[in-house]
Amino acid sequence: MRTYAIRFVSRYRYSSAVESGLHLARLLPMRRDDQTIRAAQLNIDPQPARVGTSADFFGASQSWFRLDAPHTELSIEMTAEVLVSRHPNLLGTQVAWADIAPAARCTLDLGPGSPAHFLAPSPATMADPAIVSFAQTRFDASPGLLEAAGAFAKAIRAQLTYDPQATGVHTTATEAFAIKAGVCQDFAHIFIAGCRALGLPARYVSGYLRTDPPPGQPKLEGADAMHAWASVWAGDGVGWVDFDPTNGCQVLDDHIVVAVGRDYTDTAPVLGAVMGSGDQEHQVAVDVTELS
Question: Is the preceding peptide bond at 46 cis, omega within 30 degrees of 0?
């Protein structure tokens, strides 16, 4: 069990004044059984003309806001205090991954947590033969879902280089796997693509990652920006189990969930449309500090 203070800042600077803008932000930590939100706040500068907040289909908090006055800068700041209590799902070791696909196909549940929403590939998570073979090899080596998924996450970590310059938000799993490089979004998409190709429901997770590791432990990749990882469904008795292929590990108390979806497009931190012309600069800063 850990308590974190989180600060996320996204700043846009425009080369010429923007007349108006409409934006959607998914930045507030998710309320879940394993996450308690003690405080959370979204600050926007300049002051929006209108603001609204709602939950998306999968339970994430999304805030939309409209700016009507001309502006050359936009700052979005999220601060929160979150208690995380997450433990290894050891029951997953007793689940044969070969039994998951038929169970998922037969489910009658269509709620937000249903595996039915996460079986089909999306454009970003289509698996080519190279990804299918890569995933199949790891899963064939172990009948247990948790062990096989963990091995798959570690294999992705070993095969790919973390390189923020190699890919963009529209890069697909196939493209990233071909160049063996990318960021957390790409690592997660490859994990999802491989799982779904084998009939295993897998979903995309966005959130924050502890900035400074405990003494003696290495810093995790992706800790200085919004992070992404993936979940695989382990049946009705176990539910969803999270893995971080960027760091080759199972997700525990170092990760704070913001949103889940079929791929990045369901969880994009900030979306928007502005009326204006010219170039823009964008900077993001994230700080996740454990409170004693």
Answer: yes
